[in-house]
Structures are given as structure tokens and as C-alpha cells.
Amino acid sequence: MHLWLPLKKAAMKFILYVCLSVSLITETAAQNVGIGLEDPAAKLSVNGPILIDQYNTFNGTWTNGSMLRFGLTGGAGIGSIKVSADLRHGLSFYTKTISRMNIDSIGDVSIGTNNVSMGYRLYVDGDTYTRGYGRVSDGLMVGTAVPHSGYRFEVDGQSRLDGDTKVLGTADVDALMVRGTSTFSDDAVYQQGLTVQSGRILVRNKGTVINSNSAELMFYNAIATVTYTNAPAGYSDDVTVSIPAGLWSSAPKILVGGIRNATGTFERWTYTVHSIDNSSHTCQIRFYNASSLSSSMSITLDLVCLGPSS
Question: Which domains does the chain possess?
Fold first, then answer.
């Protein structure tokens, strides 16, 4: 009995030493610990998988979560996420103890929000900046969550493009302001209007508007409104119409493009544009009652002004 107790203690120590030698190797000189390997290269080296929170005990928050933390202070780490409603698991990346980016169980990524399940492959709450090319294979929507069939790029609201813009296909725009050069290789439809502050618009494959010496042309839409009461047959009247200054290097060509509004017997009249003066920025329109009857009417004409840009 007096020999058994020391032998038992010695055996237990030997068994414990063997187990630690097999599973845990300590490199004394470097103070490195290895699990599953004999030559640990770092303070802790593991040859095999590591399982954190095996029984899903923690909820993945900074204060009560299964975390990998970096540094005693600073609040940087990676934690697991559990969403109890649908049991979806994922990862959350922290700085200053705040979740900055999340990856849920199906690979969706959210940045700038603690809401893990946003329903998008990438959801960013905040401004983003991309330097280089961005490619969208199906379609890009800005300011709207409801796509319309047939549109690759859709903007609900005002948009601004600084620099060259190239559109391959049909551009359907309510109103457009361009600073720089825009190239359209197909149709361009403007529901309200087109404003160009600087640069030029190039339209290819659907016709090109140039003058005889290939100079750039400037277009302007002027309006002329007149009213006559009981004008006799053969009545003639010249009306002066103002056109903008500084648009053309020489007198533009001005044509009657259409009738905007008209009442009375306006169909009895003819309209002739003459005396276009680029110095006084005016032109004359001769209204002539070509019928054999008197006429009362009011009319507004759209005038097409086109000439070499100044």
C-alpha cells in the first residue's frame, strides 16, 4: 500500500505527458504552441479545422457573440450571425465594436447596415465610389425598384453625366442636359426637350446634319403668333419675329415648321419667311389671305432656325 500510491501518481503523470506530447507540442525556444503539428511557426498553430460556438449558444453580437477579436482595444473582429426568424447564419465584420459589413448564409452582402437579409447580392447604405469600368449584364436601375421591360439603364429622377456619353440602342428621355460630347448610334427620343450647355451631339447611322463646308450647325425653335379680324381677300401683312443673338456666324435658314395653335379660318392664309437679318436678329413673315373671302383667325407658328454655329 505504501508503494502503490507513488506508482499510481507516476503512471498518471506519464499518461498525461504522453497525451500532451501527441496533441500539444510546445516549442520552448520560441514559446510557440502547436495543435496537430510538431513545429509551430506562430504563437498558436493549428493543423486542422477550428470550430467556434459549436452549440450555437451566442447570438453573434459584439457583447454576446462568438467572435474572433483583434487586439485588446480597437473593437475589430469577425463574429457569427444568427437570425432567429429563419435561422440564417452568416458573418459580421466589426470595427470600433460596430458591425460594418455582413454576409448572410446564402452569400448576400450588406454594407453600412445591421440588417442582414436585404434581399440583394450587394446592398450598400451610403455613398460608393468606383474607379475603373463597371459592368452590368442585365440592367441598372437608379431611383426605382420596379424594372420596365426593354430598358438596360433606367433612372427615375434627374441625372447628370460629365464627360463623353455613348448610347448603343434607343435613348428614351423626358428631358436631357448635356455637358460634353454625346454620341448616339441609334434612335434618341426626347419627350420634353434637349439642352446642350457645352460640347455637341453626334448622331450616327441615322443621318448626319452638316452644311456645305462641314461646319457645325445650330438649331433653334422660334415662335410667331398673329391675330386678324375680318381681313379682306388678298390682304397681306409683314410681321417681325425676333431670333436669338450670338447663335449663328451668319444668317440662319428659317422655315415654318408647323402650326402650334390655330382658330378661325386660318387655312385661307399662306406664310412666307423673308428678310432674315443676323445683325438685328430679326426676320419677317408675310401673312397673305389667299382666298376670295375675308378671314378672322389667330395662329401660332413654330419656326425652324438652322445655321452655322458662331
Answer: 67-124 (no CATH), 144-203 (no CATH), 217-308 (2.60.40.2080)
